[in-house]
Specification:
With 283 residues, the chain is an alpha/beta fold. The protein folds into 2 domains: 156 residues, Metal-dependent hydrolases (TIM Barrel), CATH 3.20.20.140; 66 residues, DNA polymerase, domain 1 (Orthogonal Bundle), CATH 1.10.150. The chain has a 7-stranded mixed beta sheet with strand order 1-2-3-4-5-6-7. Helix 4 crosses helix 5 and helix 5 packs across helix 6. The structure holds adenosine monophosphate and manganese (II) ion (3 copies).
Length: 283
């Protein structure tokens, strides 16, 4: 039997719609054996998540998804199995959170220029954690106001990278994000590598720079990849000697391509990022 491991998900502590304990319950109900909460730029949901997982007899790995600016594009670096009490990591994430609030004001102004009133206050009221206000909260506001029908439409018309109301996140550097995760004793993972709009040479530079900095793994099977991309990034993992991760990137019921725990298994020949942490039956 292969364990069901889902190491990428969000709660109300960033842009998810369920509290950490409710995400744990949902993971358990969908057959997940080991789960990581990986909120954007925040560790504040980890304690509730760990307690809920313990009560449910669900394996738990601490996670975080760090916003990074690399070659002008926002890249997400997931940290896994680190010490959440590490001050270097905590201070670094606090710096990123400070920039989110001002950025949200700017996005509110841009939406106003597009004729959408009250977006900053509206998005803020929809953010479970005001320090983590982000584009998903603006998308929820646009849908609530009837300006857009779906998340996809909100990102296509206003909030997607390069669209009218999108202000890029300043974020950390790649070196900082990987360094903070390693200093806290964790592993660094490139989240959904297929999602970044790089030309091939830049994408290769991301992989080699990440590896040179001590980054160990990439997401291969993720809710943010198509099945073709599972195969493509399995090849990248083999080529660069990266370990592989699997995670739904769950945000909310009905949002995104797959729910918690419902992804295919990793290709059998890849080394799972969790190999040293989770003993698989029969191995
Ligand atoms: P932010 O951290 O504020 O830049 O928001 C990034 C988040 O927006 C991602 O983590 C996703 O949850 C969401 N997102 C980004 N692009 C899209 C898209 N095209 N469709 C739906 N959600 C998206
Ligand atoms: Mn998100
Ligand atoms: Mn992401
Ligand atoms: Mn995510």
């Amino acid at each position: 039997m292969v364990l069901n491991v889902d190491l990428h998900s969000h709660s109300t502590q960033s842009d998810g719609s369920l509290r950490p304990a409710a995400v744990a319950e949902r993971a358990k109900a969908r057959g997940v054996d080991w789960w990581a909460l990986s909120d954007h730029d925040a560790l504040s949901g980890l304690q509730e998540a760990a307690e809920a997982a313990r009560e449910l007899d669900l394996g738990f790995i601490p996670g975080v998804e760090i916003s990074v600016l690399y070659s002008g594009v926002t890249v997400h670096i997931v940290g896994l199995n680190f010490n959440p009490a590490d001050t270097t990591l905590q201070v670094g994430l606090a710096q990123i959170r400070q920039t989110r609030f001002e950025r949200a004001r700017q996005m509110g102004d841009r939406l106003q220029d597009c004729g959408v009133e009250g977006a900053f206050d509206g998005a803020l009221s929809l953010a479970g954690n005001p320090h983590l206000i982000g584009r998903v909260h603006f998308a929820r506001y646009l849908i609530q106001q009837g300006v857009c029908d779906t998340f996809q439409q909100a990102f296509e018309r206003y909030l997607g990278d390069g669209k009218r109301a999108c202000v890029p996140m300043q974020g950390a550097t790649l070196e900082e994000a990987v360094g903070w995760i390693l200093s806290a004793g964790g592993k660094a993972v490139i989240a959904h590598p297929g999602r970044y709009p790089y030309k091939p040479a830049r994408r290769k530079a991301l992989f080699s720079d990440f590896k040179a900095l001590g980054g160990q793994a990439i997401e291969v099977v993720t809710g943010s990849h198509t099945p073709d991309q599972y195969r493509q990034y399995a090849r990248v993992a083999r080529e660069y000697g990266f370990e592989a991760s699997r995670g739904s990137d769950f945000h909310a019921p009905g949002m995104g391509r797959v729910d918690l725990g419902l992804l295919p298994d990793l290709p059998y020949d890849l080394v799972p990022v969790w190999r040293d942490w989770i003993v698989e039956p029969g191995h």
